[in-house]
């Protein structure tokens, strides 16, 4: 955020040093004490306010000196709370999967931010170019909301690491398209991308052209998880495979900074994306081996 912009919550400018202000309590509170819901986050780049839900990992309150990597995810209402999900009661179960992987020592403890979509304007905000039939093309404005407004807002309230190496972004379907586009456009901010079932088809696959144009300009390529379900339809499967091939052609290395998976039995819905959360987190945010962590603490 540029100096003097201020942080907005419920339409009012908030102090820079406020911590966890605006979280909802009572009946409107999230379904777990380590989930914090900030209501009606406003932007000067887009017209609609949106809720933001924040997951903090086990042990967050017990170790006040520790800071954490962070993952920003689109379609936030579908990630944690069955009361707000697109299909009531069906979510990605991100908290449950993240808790399990962290406590098992498989994933580095991290903060996860779910950015609610705005309903009818979801398509516009998640697409990088305008399609002559369907409209859209406001992802650049959404990216400004994310990088100039929301990221400083979160950093002022939670103990998160703000450097590129500790920051990721993720989403599915149009959210996967937005993740790839914004992750390439803002490669200086994001080093880890979760691209699930991406809508490569948008505007005659224009994302492939953007990848070809933008990739040579990126000095440090983000680590990418890319997947598609075997039950998502031939076009979606083929498009994801084509995207994988283009990433490899542009220098991404399978097994190192690129993971591509065709998920057996996978479908285009929250239940299926839920099954991919743990392996995605293990690839993008792997736990540091104990010996290396101890070595780093003593250096």
Please give a structural write-up.
It is a single chain. By secondary structure, this protein is an alpha/beta fold. Helices cover 33% and strands 17% of the residues. It contains nine helices and ten strands. The protein has helices spanning 94-103, 122-126, 139-157, 174-185, 202-214, 234-249, 270-275, 277-284, 290-298, and strands at 7-9, 12-14, 35-41, 50-55, 70-73, 111-115, 167-172, 192-196, 223-229, 258-263. The chain has an eight-stranded mixed sheet with strand order 3-4-6-5-7-8-9-10, sandwiched between helices. A two-stranded antiparallel ribbon has the order 1-2. A hairpin with an 8-residue loop joins β3 (35-41) and β4. α4 (174-185) packs parallel to α5. The radius of gyration is 18 Å and the shape is globular.
Question: How do the helices and strands line up, and which of them pair or pack?
Answer:
Elements: E1 7-9, E2 12-14, E3 35-41, E4 50-55, E5 70-73, H1 94-103, E6 111-115, H2 122-126, H3 139-157, E7 167-172, H4 174-185, E8 192-196, H5 202-214, E9 223-229, H6 234-249, E10 258-263, H7 270-275, H8 277-284, H9 290-298
Parallel strand pairs: 5-6, 5-7, 7-8, 8-9, 9-10
Antiparallel strand pairs: 1-2, 3-4, 4-6
Helix pairs in contact: 1-8, 4-5, 5-6
